Amino acid sequence: MNLSSICNTFKIGLLFDNGGTVFFSVFMSLWAVTFLEYWKRKSVVLADKWDCLEFEGSKERSRPEFTATAPMTIKNPVTGIEEPYFPNGDRIQRVISSTMVILLMIAVVFICLVSIILYRSIVSILMYKTGNSIFMVLASKIASITGSIVNLLVILLLAQVYTSLAHFLTRWEMHRTQTMYEDAFIVKVFIFQFVNFYSSPLYIAFFKGRFIGYPGHYGSLLGVTNEDCGAGGCMIQLAQELLVIMVGKQIINNVQEFVIPKLKGWLQKHKLRSIDKKELSGAEQVPWVKDYELLVCEGLFDEYLEMVLQFGFITIFVAAFPLAPLFALLNNWIEIRLDASKFVCEYRRPIVERAQDIGIWFNILEVITHLAVISNAFLIAFTSDFLPRLYYYYTHDNNMTGYVNFTLSYAPHKFLQQNNSMCRYKDFRDQHGYLTLTYWNLLAVRLGFVIVFEHVVFFIGRMIDVLVPDVPESVEIKLKREHYLAKQALAENQALGQALFEQAENQNEFSSETSERKTSTDQHNLPPIPEDKQL
């Protein structure tokens, strides 16, 4: 391939792969930490407002499904009341079985990923073999974009199948409270969805193009030559993959949220009205009949999952796709209005359920935030060309002239003799195929950058965590005041109880003394016994 034919691709790649990417990645990592800290404060304020700060554990009741299907009862050591019980040993066995099913589904995801990789490689090879100059130049792009579209369709299909399976497995595990049930279900679905949605971008970011070998010694997978990143490097292909998966998912979800509720609502109204037209015709305008014809609200799980996955896209891969936050902002602007219309006009008013916080979703967001720091550090160090350019700039008198030649190696002599043509490829190897000293120097620079980047971001994030209290001062004062008043009321109640107890004892003593005096007085006032009656 002629280098002059791919100059435009390199120029487009520089829009994402430049020095500003480092600072933007640091900013997004710190933004994620700050966002979570202030969300904790907001969550505490809302929980205090609705009196839910100590809801979990102490006030939460057993699930009706658990109560109905529990095989035995056991006495609660705190309340002394018989409660439904499911043996922990049996639950552990079921959890292990569920874990095996999850691992099996994850294996299916990896099989699909390998299939997509083979698809891209085969399409690229077939297009190169056509001999058409246009197809040869666009082969990598066409294979990458079509592979991303196929991957998106497979992802959405597997997500629907696994969500239904996760519902069944979580019910089978017999969790006592609704919080425990939801946490178990969320963990199952998120682990699978994480692998499902992020496996392909992670492969392109950290594995694609690493095992291609060099001329004369190319690597292969199942007999097919391993795919390379193509012109412009892996960063631009990763940006294409994220654009297709993230934005494509947003478009499909928004269409589903608009079309499916309206379609389901129309079908339900048509079904209810066809049951008894005469009965409903007179009550057609009654508000509660209209409300009954609406759809039953199925909860907020899908909304949470959508936002958490989007949070992962805009933090874990922001170094490769800096436009992700902009697309997320536009999606949220549309999402808020679609959800408002859906919950107000298409669904019945849901039954109120108390909750202390957003549950395990917050822990998942914290894990994603930490993964984002690590991911962006390795993206900049190993996938981006930022550090090689920086290394070349400072080792060649602050000059970038000749950088392209610096990144290219000559093919081995045997390969040149067999093909009778000059060939250069992107790597740091000598003409015997061995890695050069430049490769190892760059590797040291990359590892050093990862360590410095992670430590700096984690340190600043920890400082933000320390400086921003989890509980606002006003709420903390209010809680301390309530605790003080509760202790004072308890002390007064105990004092009052003690006083009433002492008063009752005094009354009992007074009553007993009065009765004794009355008895003795009555004995003194008895008439004397006549002599003839005495013994």
Automatic annotation (TrEMBL):
Membrane topology: Multi-pass membrane protein
Family, similarity comment: Belongs to the anoctamin family.
GO annotation terms (biological process): calcium activated phospholipid scrambling
Pfam families in alphabetical order: Anoctamin
UniProt domain Anoctamin transmembrane: residue ranges: 14-482
Cell compartment(s), UniProt: Membrane
Organism, as annotated: Callorhinchus milii
GO cellular component entries: plasma membrane
Source organism, top-level taxon: Eukaryota
PANTHER family noted in UniProt: ANOCTAMIN, ANOCTAMIN-7
Disordered as annotated region, ranges: 505-535
Any GO MF annotation of the entry: chloride channel activity
Membrane listed as a keyword: yes
Name used for this protein in its record: Anoctamin
Keywords: Membrane, Transmembrane, Transmembrane helix
InterPro entries to which the protein is assigned, alphabetical: Anoctamin (IPR007632), Anoctamin_TM (IPR049452)
Membrane-spanning parts: 20-39, 101-122, 142-165, 185-206, 308-330, 358-382, 439-460
